[in-house]
């Protein structure tokens, strides 16, 4: 029996393409204010895992930004073209592929699917360009080491917060305003906005980042509990 085509995947990726793809996911986890516990590449494939947060929800916008970030920032144009052509057919893609998760989130967003995908591509490219130095740093580490441990990632995320002036500004405000600009949505001024695109209470700032010791305990608990932390429920 003929094997099923692995739609939404690319075989024989170069080391640079693998590193750029996973570094894209890692950068987006930081921008989505999530904790990453591992990022690595080996034997032609890669993985980026986030910390499982009990009860955490993600919006369709967050889901698509994360799932598309790897292929967009790695310049995987064949995957993006395939995704646009089959944007309404979730069954076309491999269940564990990024494209599968994108197509699953698309019905929650108004607009013609191919157009919406192009808009998200623009958002990710703009964010990738703005934070190019951070992305390049992650790419370099992956190419040199093959894996970035959670403590190194924690240090990088703290460094990026400082370097880009995002210690106090909620990243939801940065990312949601980037999305709204591309989709031409009107946004409130003078207040930070949350992941639901609504104003946060006056005076709210970004919460302090979890310390490394606490994160280590959380990572240990997740590993012992056998939780992947890769997928969380969509919140409409």
**Which range best describes the helical content: under 10%, 10-25%, 25-40%, 40-55%, 55-70% or over 70%?**
40-55%
Q: What count of helical segments does DSSP give?
A: 9
CATH fold group:
Methane Monooxygenase Hydroxylase, Chain G, domain 1
Q: What summary fits the major beta sheet?
A: 3 strands, antiparallel
Which stretches are low in confidence, meaning pLDDT under 50 for 5 or more residues running? 227-236
Radius of gyration, whole Å: 17 Å
Number of spatially distinct domains:
1
Structural class: mainly alpha
Question: How far apart, in Å, are the first and last alpha carbons?
Answer: 40 Å
- CATH class call: Mainly Alpha
- SSE string, helices as H and strands as E: HEEHHHHHEHHH
Strand-residue proportion: 5-15%
Oligomeric state of shown chains: single chain
Query: Taking strands numbered 1, 2, ... along the chain, how are they ordered across the largest sheet?
Result: 2-1-3
CATH-scheme architecture: Up-down Bundle
Mass-distribution shape = globular
Overall number of strands: 3
Question: What is the average of the pLDDT values?
Answer: 90
Describe the structure.
The chain is built from nine helices and three strands. 35% of the residues are buried. Helix 1 crosses helix 6 (132-145). Helix content is 51%, strand content 7%. The chain starts with 14 loop residues before the first helix and ends in an 11-residue tail after the last helix. A three-stranded antiparallel beta sheet has the order 2-1-3. It has one domain (15-169, 204-225): Methane Monooxygenase Hydroxylase, Chain G, domain 1, CATH 1.20.58. Mean pLDDT is 90; it is low at 227-236. With 236 residues, the protein is mostly helical.
């Amino acid at each position: 029996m003929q094997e099923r085509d692995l739609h939404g995947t690319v075989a024989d990726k170069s080391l640079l393409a693998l590193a750029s793809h996973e570094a894209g996911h890692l950068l987006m986890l930081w921008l989505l204010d999530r904790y990453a516990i591992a990022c690595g590449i080996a034997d032609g494939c890669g993985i980026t895992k986030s910390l499982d947060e009990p009860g955490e929800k993600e919006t369709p916008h967050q889901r698509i930004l994360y799932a598309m970030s790897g292929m967009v920032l790695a310049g995987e144009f064949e995957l993006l073209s395939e995704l646009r052509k089959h944007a309404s057919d979730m069954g076309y893609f491999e269940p564990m592929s990024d494209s599968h998760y994108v197509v699953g989130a698309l019905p929650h967003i108004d607009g013609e699917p191919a157009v919406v995908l192009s808009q998200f591509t623009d958002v990710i490219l703009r964010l990738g360009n703005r934070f190019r130095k951070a992305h390049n740093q992650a790419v370099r580490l992956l190419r040199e080491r093959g894996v970035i441990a959670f403590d190194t990632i924690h240090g990088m995320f703290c460094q990026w917060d400082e370097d880009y002036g995002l210690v106090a500004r909620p990243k939801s405000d940065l990312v949601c305003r980037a999305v709204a600009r591309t989709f031409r949505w009107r946004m409130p001024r003078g207040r930070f906005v949350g992941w639901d695109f609504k104003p946060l209470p006056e005076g709210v700032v970004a919460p302090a980042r979890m310390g490394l010791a606490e994160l280590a305990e959380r990572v240990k608990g997740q590993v012992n509990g056998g939780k992947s932390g890769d997928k969380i429920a969509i919140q409409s």
